[in-house]
Amino acid sequence: MKNTQLMHEQAEVFAQSIVEKQNGFKFESVFQYTDENGDVIYWKLRAKNPDNGQKFIRSFSLKGSDFILKEPDFHEVFPQGNGSKPLYALYRISASKDQPIYVVEGEQKADYLNKLGLYATTTGGCQSVSKTDLSPLFGRSIIVWPDNDEPGLKFLDALNEAVHEKNTLVSVIKLDELNLESKDDVVDWVEKRAAIGQETSIKDVQNLIIVPYNSTGFKQVEKNNEAELHKKSEVLAAPMPHKNGQFEITSDGVHYLRMRDGELECFWLSTPVLILAKTRDQTSNDWGRLLKWVDDANVEHTWALPMETLQTDGADMRKALAHMGVTLSTSRSARELFQTYIANYPVDTFAKCVNKVGWHDHQYILPNNVIGENSSGEFIVYQSTYNVIDKYVQKGTLNDWQNNVAKYSENHDFLVLALSSAFTGQLLEPLGRHGAGIHFKGKSSKGKSTAVFIACSVWGNPESYYHTWRNTSNALEQTAFTHNDGLLVLDEIGEIPNPKDLGNIIYMLINGSGKGRMTKSLTVRETARWRLVFLSSGEKTLSELMNEAGQQAKLGQEIRLINIDIDQSEHGIFDQIDFSENAAQQALLLNSNIKKYYGVAGAAWLQYLTSDKVKVTEIANRLLDEYAQVLIGQHKQGHIIRVANYFALVAVSGEMATIAGITGWKSGTAIRSVQKVFNHWIGNFEQVGDYEDEEILNQVRTFFTLHGSSRFELINTEFSEQTKVFNRMGFVKVEADERQFYVYPEIFKQEICKSLNSKVVAKVLKKYGWIDCDGKLMTKVKRLPESEKVTRLYVFNANVMMNFDIEAKSEIKQSNSSNFSNMFEN
Q: How do the domains of the chain map onto residue ranges?
């Protein structure tokens, strides 16, 4: 490329000298025409008479080192054009690759579009089309912006006639959408926008409606009448150029249009799918695209599609879209084009993606909805590589649900507990609390499933919202993750595939952490974490199922899955017969109603919580302190206090849902019912009192019962084959009627305290006199046979241990007597 800048400055001086000789004209611009390499071919000057509007336009060129007011010999200076003139801005549009070329009438308009970042050119007008080399436009997608007048239409026709047989797709800006006056052009449009305070950007131009140009120059073929139908549809988004055609998004679908052998071909790819934004997480990873569409039932959908799903053949993406109501072409080529459209459609809007439902700052995220305002103003969407089904669906009105579900439950404590639990998951994060599970245990005719299904109706259709225990621990991990900050319902605990996993599953669900795993690329995948509450049902308790599997339920498991036995109730899940003939009919009526009215209570609850999360949290904290004091009462045991605190949280949830106008219950209904069920649990829990101590004492004594005679060597006994001890754990010393077991510290930790905290065990043993200690230490110095050194050992008093009445020591049953029951009357 020669020094075009210097040449242009010299050309400008020459042009001004020419204009000065023209009476009344004022110089405006000099336009420089080059070849595809940027070398100057000629110039064109433009001047105007401000008094009468007359234009003065002349071409000039170089002859030797002098400017002459004449066009050059194009055969000589532009041989590739075969005597024709070059397109304006040829150097720029030659570097545009797959971008569309905007063609306008005049260099000033092309310059403006090029400054915006588009690729624009001109032939100068309809009279110059036949004199211009148009080959750089062949096979490209061009968008024509003609002047809004008759010459503009002639320019469009002439240009289309010249390129349509060269596989060039010609589209035109839909001028009647721009409110232009006669003869207005792109510059006039920009000035009108500026007059009302609107700046114009590249996106403003790209988002203008364009349509394939329909003139006698297009030969529509019968086999491709899709093109004719496409022209009659409404444009929904700006087109996207691709190769020698472009994608267009209209009311009848996503199409790909191209010219082939002088004919316009139009390929239908899918029903309309819009790309709204690019998504990414807070670390600028997990990129995706936010899609939007309306299904055949006129239901609007949005989905944040992870970009990684496009790095295969796209089958997973298409299956997910088809599942959510998008109709797609089955043609292989159409599928490939659709994937190209989804992956590459240009958008400048960004959204923050999250892969977990639940609370994110002051917003609550659901798979297809975001509730609440974001203080930062950033758009947040849910995005997951898992095909998550949106179960948060609604049917009926809140009034319907109140009158046909909540009202019938109000006088039944177990049902109030279940419904209040359904509102509890959303309070865990604001209050900084852990969840728990409640297990309704009862025979098949007692209505246990009715209780958990009623809770499901708060959030969606019970038939699709609930899960069963018939899943592996890995599957339940993913299920728990998708119910973060919410309610998980698991029906029929007896169906669990491997009861031996049950104890660990309980810990996993409530502790809120999955297993660490590797990705396919051998990187460490982030461990799934969640907070939730869950309801369970079944004919057996956790303890019964674990015993059948040869295991013993631990206290930590039993207070994480709180067993509520409804078999003792005369009417099962119901306190009384008050809205039908019998318990069975009441259950049938409720199960029928929850299939008609669901999801609306949960939606109202989220609106209430997000309306002022700070204030709502303050109210919840105050109520929680009040209710916890009432339920804890005189109880001192840690496990009872933990359950009492959880029941208090459930009561808070039910009362706040009532305050929010969601349940329709009288004030005090939730706390009164929850307290009654808590007392019911206290009366049925087999290990009320120092249960942790009893668990420890039983385990230790069982160990010595099994191994005391076989794995401890007698002190002061001469060695012989008959007294040899295999796998020795320590020594036993017998003096008169007293026996003491000496245990090595490591053996104590690894075998006697197996699965228990050794420090806690030692403190309990010392508390009940089972071990002798040196002062505050838990061990005692002893000299062992065949050793001159003393050793610290755990010294067990066998007589105390074997004669200790563990059951009598732990029977510290307490009732939660309180005058609270009448606090909320009236």
A: 1-85, 87-270, 274-382, 398-637+673-684, 691-810
